[in-house]
Design a protein that fits this description.
Layout (H helix, E strand, L loop, with lengths): L8 H19 L15 H16 L3 E4 L5 E5 L9 E6 L12 H16 L8 E6 L12 H6 L19 H7 L4 H6 L7 E7 L4 H5 L3 E7 L1 E11 L3 E2 L11 H21 L5 E8 L9 E2 L2 E10 L2 H21 L4 E3 L3 E4 L2 E2 L2 H13 L6 E4 L4 H7 L3 E7 L14 H19 L1
Parallel strand pairs: 3-4, 3-5, 5-16, 6-15
Antiparallel strand pairs: 1-2, 2-4, 6-14, 6-16, 7-11, 7-12, 7-13, 8-10, 9-11
Bound molecules: zinc ion (ZN).
The site of zinc ion has 6 residues, from loops.
């Protein structure tokens, strides 16, 4: 494939150089291995944002932060009346996460700015590198904190969510990093515009198919029980007869097998659904080899592209629980709080816009669903024309082994650069 840049090699070279530099510099910031850990609203996340700010300033971009600490670096377009293009991702990670989830999208956004600068081009509309805060909801039980803060969609109660490791509130952590939770709740969000996020796929589809990148048409939403508990009765493993036991582990096994069948049924009916028990805990100090388990903690993560499917799966889940409680005297479930993120339809016109750029470099990306939640979903929910470009990755995601080829990312960035050039022409 040859890139159609009139200036020739400089755009591609600038893209690749910026991708490599941003990935290397951001990934030097971590709490330690294995993998990479940059908690939401931590000093490390702030340092990563500062690093991107320095790169943006070196490109002559105008940098500002909002009250939540989201970073916006603007390259002015030729016509300020045209709808701006915001492009970016996040820099926080899960605990012992990978080198690309979030980082790749920020590197790609800066690489586009670098290519525009290197070729002396002015985009038609304002191009705004966007680095969000706190996208990974493992730290606070709230989805898309930074982007929703930027969009004026965080509620006062979200500010009271506690970070899982420190037990301190989101408001406290924002204040620690020099931001203003009160102002977040009253700020006027920017007018709906266009948002583009490059992100690794976090699944095997593109790698299996041998395709470097794809367009994303929709993002699955989620329905979660983060802290559910089964209560039974502790008993002696040798002394307690089978009848009369209230074994929390056996009740959980019933639930897991029942939900696996529920899931199969939804798929057979043509619905989009995933069912995951992501954490199971029957290993507290009270649990032991010679005891019938009297308690078990778990979480459930349901995902679908359709809110009605999530509701139906939730009803099926509760029906199975009622059945198990009836069948097993002494067993009771406490599901705790439910949290949700809405499925997001992404923008057909933005998919077509990126696709036209891809055609310019001879690429024919497929269109697919995103299983993971992303900032692009928050922008879509706020009425923005939002789109994602997925990058082939391997060894899974949210793990130290997470893989991606920077050459794939550079190719996808070249496709979008071609779309920007076309728009400016
Ligand atoms: Zn991510």
């Amino acid at each position: 494939m040859t890139a159609p840049f009139p200036a020739g090699q400089p755009a591609a070279a600038a893209i690749r150089a910026m991708i490599d530099r941003v990935l290397a510099r951001v990934n030097a910031l971590s709490l330690g291995g294995p993998g990479w850990t940059r908690p939401s609203y931590s000093d490390l996340e702030s340092q990563a944002h500062a690093l991107i700010e320095a790169e943006a300033l070196a490109l002559g971009m105008e940098v500002r932060r909002d009250a939540a600490g989201n970073l916006f670096a603007r390259l002015p377009g030729r016509d300020s009346s045209l709808t701006p293009l915001y492009c970016g991702s996040h820099l926080d990670t899960v605990t012992e996460g990978g080198a690309f989830d979030g980082q790749a999208g920020v590197a790609a956004a800066l690489a586009l700015a670098a290519a525009l600068r290197a070729t002396g081009r002015t985009p038609a509309a304002d191009f705004i590198v966007t680095v969000t805060r706190a996208e990974e909801s493992v730290w606070f039980p709230v989805s898309y904190i930074g982007s929703r803060a930027a969009l004026g969609r965080l509620a006062p109660e979200d500010m009271q969510a506690k970070r899982v490791d420190t037990g301190r509130t989101l408001a406290d952590h924002m204040l620690d990093q020099g931001f203003d939770p009160q102002a977040v709740l009253t700020a006027t969000p920017p007018a709906p515009a266009r948002f583009l996020e490059f992100h690794i796929e976090q699944g095997p589809v593109l790698d299996s198919a041998g395709e470097p990148f794809a367009l994303v048409s929709a993002i699955r939403g989620g329905l979660r029980y983060r802290a559910a508990r089964i209560a039974g009765a502790w008993a002696h493993s040798g002394g307690a007869p089978r009848d009369g036991r209230a074994d929390a582990v056996v009740a959980f096994a019933d639930l897991v097998m029942a939900m696996d069948q529920v899931w199969k049924g939804f798929l057979t009916d043509g619905a989009d659904l995933t069912v995951t028990f992501g954490r199971v805990d029957a290993a507290t100090p009270a649990h032991a080899m010679a005891k019938v388990a009297g308690t078990l903690d778990f979480c459930l993560d349901l995902r679908s592209d359709d809110p009605a499917t999530l509701d139906a799966a939730d009803r099926a889940f509760r029906a199975e629980i009622a059945r198990i409680e009836a069948a097993r005297p002494g067993i009771s479930f406490d599901l705790g709080a439910q949290s949700r993120s809405a499925p997001a339809r992404l923008s057909d016109s933005m998919c077509a816009w990126v696709d036209a750029g891809a055609a310019q470099i001879g690429a024919t990306p497929r269109t697919m669903l995103s299983g993971g939640g992303h900032d692009a979903a928050a922008f879509a929910a706020a009425g923005w024309d939002s789109v994602m470009v997925f990058l082939r990755n391997w060894n899974g995601s949210h793990c130290p082994e997470e893989g991606m080829d920077p050459a794939d990312l550079a190719l996808a960035v070249e496709a979008v650069f071609a779309a920007l050039v076309q728009e400016a022409a």
